[in-house]
Amino acid sequence: MLKNNPQAELKMKNEKVKNKVRFFGFAFLVFTFTFASACRYDMQDQPRYKYYKKSDFFADGRASRDLPEGTVSRGNLRDDKAFYTGKLANPNPNVAAPAAQTATDASGNTLVTTFPDAIAKIPVPVTKELIDRGQERYNIYCIVCHGPVGNGDGMIVRRGYPKPPTYHDDRLRNAPDGHFFDVITNGWGKMNSYAHQVSVADRWAIVAYIRALQVSQTPNANAAMTTNRAANTNAAPSAVSPANAPAANTNTQGGTR
Ligand code: HEC
Question: In CATH terms, is domain 81-90+99-224 a member of 1.10.760.10?
Answer without folding.
Answer: yes
